[in-house]
Amino acid sequence: FETIRDLMRSNVDALIALDEVGETIAHSLVTWFSKERNQMLIDRLEALGLSMKSSLYVEDSEHPLSGSSWVLTGTLPNFSRQQATEKIEAIGGKVTGSVSKKTSFVLAGESAGSKLQKAQKLGVQIVDEAGFTALLDQNA
User: Fold this and answer.
1) CA distances (Å), 139 to each of 67, 129, 132, in order?
2) Structure confidence at residue 58 (pLDDT)
3) Is 17 contained in some domain?
4) Which candidate, 26, 40, 72, 115, has a CA 20 to 30 Å from the CA of 49?
5) How many beta carbons lie within 10 A of that of residue 96, not counting itself?
6) Does 43 fall in a domain?
7) The pLDDT value given to residue 1
8) Confidence (pTM)
9) Could you say which residues of the chain have pLDDT below 70?
10) 26: Cβ–Cβ under 8 A, 6 or more apart, which residues?
């Protein structure tokens, strides 16, 4: 969601579609944002100058990997996890902590463990560091 207002307008189904958001959290968010006192709190905070726009929002949603979901596992020889995460977010992707059927790619480094095994079991596309770099370069 680009802004807090976008989140406020969302529904349970849209929230459940996000990685790491289950039914309980989705219902809690929708309920919280539906209360007038909470809407007024958001209004007051914005009036005081608080910016509630995501710093991760990518204007160029035309990138082929925009919207992709990534999980990092193992050690990458040439990237820190933070650097890999920043590269993924820069093209509109997101990094999550666990593999699920919603995961687009697993970036697997050396000594990858159970996340790699789960990705293989679920048929998630697995890329190594060279493949990751190639994907970024090819879709730049």
Assistant:
1) 14, 15, 11
2) 46
3) yes
4) 26
5) 15
6) yes
7) 75
8) 0.57
9) 54-62, 139-140
10) 12, 15, 16
